[in-house]
Amino acid sequence: MRRRELFPFLLLVPALVIILIIVAWPLIETFRLSFTNASLRPRVRNVGFENYIEIFEDDFWEILGRTFLWMIMGVSLKLLVGLAGAVLLNAAVAGRTAFRVLLMPPWIVPIPMAVFMWSWMYNGQFGMISGVGQYIGLLDGPFEFLARGDTALVAAVITDVWIGAPLIALYLLAAMQSIPKDLYEAAWTDGASRFYRFRRITLPLIMPSIITIGLLTAIWTFNSFDVIWILTEGGPRGSTETLIIDLYKTGISRFRFGEGAARAVMFLLVLMIFAATYMALLFRVGQQEGQR
Fold it and tell me: For position 192, which CATH number holds?
């Protein structure tokens, strides 16, 4: 009897070992390095909390604020565009199957390829956006979107939204199609308008899905590295530098492994707050669903 009880736990041992090797050990090693001056130099010494103090003495709060701005702008636009796309794709119009197929390329195309395409479009000399702006009279001459601090972050957000919105649209479309049609037919019989049906039926019933995909998108966007790095590498003059970009520049580009490890620990703490918020909101949504 005891062997039967232990057998399920023995099956978990390989997965537990892999998790310890891939996840736990790097976390412990990163935490250890954060208290050292590790770099390319052969001798490493402990420096206590010096790396953490230096983080707050630098422009940490400015970078953190920019990271939250990047995340809020990106997630808000992705949810709005994705919700609008899901509503249009769910409508009973001719050719909606073709529209659903056309929605996939931005998500299927490899992210580096898509970002390179947008970087060419943003080019002031031969980019399409600058050319169209000059042709219709909005721009007086070539406009370098990625070379200006006031437009580089917005350009990166637009690129990120173009990549991420299709997945959200498909996710919310699946949620909409799971709503019973009887509810819409009853509301239509009572004379409810299309907007009223959306506000009173569709939106409340897909709200758990919106919360779930919204929080997951927030974590993905907060962790996003490739879009900003390929477009601007954090420039110009740090106007698009987020926490993950600052971490990479410090720990990898400048070979300051100890300081980079300290920044990674701070980054992990912020992500833990996101994870806690995610679990708390999911728990609330689950309670509300259980009371219905």
Answer: 1.10.3720.10
Range of the structural domain that residue 286 is part of:
58-291
At 202, the amino acid letter reads T
Could you tell me if residue 135 is inside a domain? Answer: yes
- Whether 34 is covered by a domain: the verdict is no
C-alpha dihedral sign at 134, 139, 140, 145:
negative
Query: Whole-prediction pTM value?
Result: 0.85
* Residue segments in the chain with a per-residue pLDDT below the cut of 50: 1
Strand runs (DSSP E) across 60-184, as ranges?
none
pLDDT, one tens digit per residue, over 137-156 is 888 888 899 998 889 999 99
pLDDT tens for 9-45 read: 888 888 888 888 888 888 888 999 999 998 888 888 8
Beta strands, E only, 64-127? none
3-state secondary structure of 36: strand
- Dihedral-angle region of residue 95 (phi above 0 means left; psi in -120 to 50 means alpha; beta otherwise): left
How many structural domains does the chain have? 1
- Residue 27 counted as domain residue: no
